[in-house]
Write a structure and sequence with these properties.
This protein is an alpha/beta fold. Among the domains are: 123 residues, Peptidoglycan recognition protein-like (Lysozyme-like, 3-Layer(aba) Sandwich), CATH 3.40.80; 49 residues, no CATH class. It is built from 9 helices and 5 strands; from the N terminus they run ααβαβββαβααααα.
């Protein structure tokens, strides 16, 4: 009888051991599966938005391939010209993201509901994310004006720098920006005067890339203009500050906003109004744009 109970107990322990082994194996399989899923997600976190990008690019390509043309007039007497190319960007607009991380900005630009985008995003560590073909129209500028141009999105490249608007830009970030600007200027022959900020084209709405941005460093490299020493400058008696702002390119509908935008860019100052020394700077900058 005692032997019988010992056998039963041994069998029971064996079954328990088998169950424990099976549970451990099941747990290992589960952990492996979860790791595989996590690694897949980590390697391709934007797979779904990339798919949408490809679909939309394909739709645009199909529109361009239409023959005969069916876009506006729809004439049956279509004769295709042999002389054409894609429209090229003529401005570069620099922004700060006003968000707290590069990842947050990338999520914003890959979510359709936000309706905002840029061609490039540069992270604090200098990583450059190219998000849209340069020839395509990003939604980065919004309502704005520079000179007589009231549709900046249609002829510009938007560059977003990961920065909340209240902090200096990193050296890695600025070094990457300068390399990118060199490539864009060479590729599209963009004039030095046409490297400007979001606040320049929308002074009543925007402040980016704000007072921490080193515009002089960019101008010294050929991207934008700067001014010479104004110590001995004598202003013309007929100098008109609002006319000078208009010549540079600012929308002077809101004169206070235009002045602040100018000071933010060239004087790293956001106080309203201009003093005598700042009038001289405005005059010097204006001469660059005449």
């Amino acid at each position: 009888m005692q032997l019988h109970f010992i056998l039963i107990e041994t069998l029971a322990l064996s079954r328990i051991h088998i169950i424990l082994v099976e549970d451990r194996l099941q747990m290992k399989y589960t952990i492996c599966f979860l790791l595989i899923v996590c690694l897949s997600c980590a390697r391709k976190p934007y797979a779904s938005s990339n798919k949408i990008y490809k679909q939309q690019a394909k739709q645009l390509a199909e529109t361009l391939k239409q023959y005969p043309l069916k876009d506006s007039f729809g004439s049956t007497d279509f004769i295709g010209t042999t002389n054409f190319n894609l429209r090229k960007p003529n401005f570069v607009i620099i922004h700060h993201t006003a968000q707290n991380s590069c990842e947050q900005t990338l999520k914003t630009f890959t979510t359709q509901q936000t309706q905002v985008s840029a061609h490039y995003v540069i992270c604090k560590d200098g990583t450059v994310h190219h998000m849209l073909n340069d020839y395509m129209r990003a939604w980065h500028a919004g309502v704005g004006k520079w000179g007589n141009d009231v549709d900046i999105n249609s002829n510009s490249i938007g560059i977003e720098l990961d920065n909340n608007g209240y902090e200096p830009f990193t050296d890695d970030q600025l070094n990457s920006l300068l390399k990118l600007l060199a490539a864009l200027k060479k590729q599209y022959n963009i004039p030095a005067a046409n490297f400007i900020g979001h606040a320049d084209i929308a002074p009543a709405r925007k402040n980016d890339p704000n007072v921490f941005f080193p515009w002089k460093r960019l101008a010294d490299s050929g991207y934008g203009y700067w001014y010479a020493d104004t110590t001995n400058l004598v202003l013309p008696s007929n100098f008109n500050d609002l006319q000078a702002l208009r010549i540079i390119g600012y929308d002077i509908k809101d004169t206070t906003a235009a002045i602040v935008a100018f000071k933010r860019h060239w004087l790293q100052d956001t106080l309203p109004g201009l003093d005598s020394a700042q009038y001289k700077v405005l005059f010097e900058v204006m001469k660059k744009y005449e």
